[in-house]
Amino acid sequence: MNSLFETVLYIPEGINFDCTGCGNCCFHWPVPATDKDVERINALVGDVDKPNFRKLPGSVDKMKAFTHSLEKRADGSCQYLDPDIRCRLHKNYGIESKPAMCQLFPYTFTLTPTGAYASLSFASTGVLLNSGAPLSTQKEFLQNQLALFMQLFPNEPDWGKIQLIDGIPLRWVEFLLIDKALLENIAPRNPKSLSRENLLAQSKMIVKKLPKPVDLDNAHLTKVRPILIDQILIKLLYELYFVDDPYREGAAEFDQKQFLDVLAGQPQSISLQFCAQKGAFEHVSFKSINDFRFNAQDYVEIDQLLTRMIYCRLFSKLYFGPGFGGLSLLSGFHHLVLLVALVRIHFKLATITGVESKDFNWQVEQIRMLERRLTVTSLSREAHAILEVLLQSPARIERILSLSA
C-alpha cells in the first residue's frame, strides 16, 4: 500500500456517525499539532487571537508527525471553543483551518496487507449513540479522511509477525478466514453477539485452528489457585480501565510487578476498588460480585453500544498484534471478551455500592472512559508476556464470564 490509490477501503456495516455538536471532544482531550498546523493557525489568526502552542518533547514513532500541543484553558476546554460550543477556527475559517487531528477525529483507519479498515473512536458522543448516516454511505468522505490519516501516520503496521498463540505464527490469509467468522458472529445485527455462549463459541473456533493440541489452561506453570489468578488479573485490568480521572496525562500501563507481588503473597481474599465519585472509593469482595446477578434486561441499550464497540475493534483489527500490544490472536480476542466481562462487573459494582447504574447517560460515559483508557494503554515487554500467557486460557475466560453474569 504505497499510495491511497492502491489502498482498498473497507467500511463496517451497521455503524453510523454524524457529529452531534456536543463539544465533548473539545474538552480535556489533548490536541497534538503538526508544524503545518502551527504555521497555518498562526497565519490565520494573527496576534489578535494568537494560539498557545506547547512544544512537545521527542514523540514516539507513531506520533512523530506531531511536534506541538494546542494548550487548553484552566477548565479543560479548547482555547478556540466558543460559549455556543462551536469551534471558532471552524466557524471563521472553515474545517481545514483546524488542527489535522481535530479534522480526523473520530475517524481512524488500520492499514493491513489487504487494505485499510475504517473505524471510529467511541470517545465521540455521536459514535456512542450511533447517530447520523451509515458509514457505508460516506465512502468518498472516508477516502479523504484516509488520505489525511496516512499523512499523519505514514508508517504501516507490520502484520507479518502475527501469531495464533504465542510461538505459533499465523499467515495473513489464514487470519482472514478466522476474521470472517468472527465478524459474522459478532456484529451489530446479532442480538446475541456478546452472549456468553457466543463468545465462548468464537474462542473455541480459534482454538480449533491450532495445528496440534496445547494445554492452554496450565501454561502458567504455577500451583497458585486458578481462581485467585483470575481475581488478581481482573483487579489489575479493572483498575487500569475504570479510573476516577480517565483524562490524566500519560500512558495506561498494566502493572506486571504488582501482579507478581500479589501473586507471590497468595492472599486469602481480593476485592475490587470502585470509584463511587472522584477521590472516593469503595471496596467490594469477589463473593459479593459473584452473588449479585447481572440483569441483562436493565442494560439492553448499553449492550447494543458495547456490541458496536467490540465489533469495531474486531473489524479494525485493534485487538491483537500491532493493533494492540503485540498479543497473539487468541489472547487478543480473549482480552476483548474480558472487556465485556469488566463492563458488566463495573455495572454490578455500581449497583452494589448504590450508584444509579441504570441511567443510560452514566452508562455511556463509562464506555467513553473505557475507550479513552484503551487508546492510551501501553504494554511493556514484561506485561505483554504475562498477559499473553494468562489470556490464552479458555477456562479462565469462561470463569470470568460466569462471574460477570
What is the gist of this entry?
The chain has 405 residues and is of the alpha+beta class. It has helices at 35-45, 88-93, 100-104, 125-128, 139-152, 172-185, 196-207, 226-241, 256-265, 286-291, 300-315, 329-352, 360-376, 381-391, 394-403; strands spanning 9-10, 31-33, 53-55, 68-70, 107-112, 115-120, 163-165, 168-169, 252-253, 271-277, 280-285, 377-378. It has 15 helices and twelve strands.
Structural features:
alpha+beta, 3-stranded mixed sheet, 2 domains, 3-stranded antiparallel sheet, single chain, 405 residues
- What is the number of E strands? 12
Biggest sheet strand line-up = 1-6-5
Taking Cα atoms only, what radius of gyration do you get, to the nearest Å?
22 Å
Global mean pLDDT: 90
Description of the molecule:
This protein has 15 helices and twelve strands. It is an alpha+beta fold and 405 residues long. It folds into two domains: 4-152, no CATH class; 160-403, no CATH class. The strands form five sheets. Strands 1-6-5 form a three-stranded mixed beta sheet, with helices on both faces. Strands 2-4-3 form a three-stranded antiparallel beta sheet.
SSE inventory with pairings:
Elements: E1 9-10, E2 31-33, H1 35-45, E3 53-55, E4 68-70, H2 88-93, H3 100-104, E5 107-112, E6 115-120, H4 125-128, H5 139-152, E7 163-165, E8 168-169, H6 172-185, H7 196-207, H8 226-241, E9 252-253, H9 256-265, E10 271-277, E11 280-285, H10 286-291, H11 300-315, H12 329-352, H13 360-376, E12 377-378, H14 381-391, H15 394-403
Parallel strand pairs: 1-6, 9-12
Antiparallel strand pairs: 2-4, 3-4, 5-6, 7-8, 10-11
Helix pairs in contact: 6-7, 7-12, 7-15, 8-9, 11-13, 12-14, 12-15
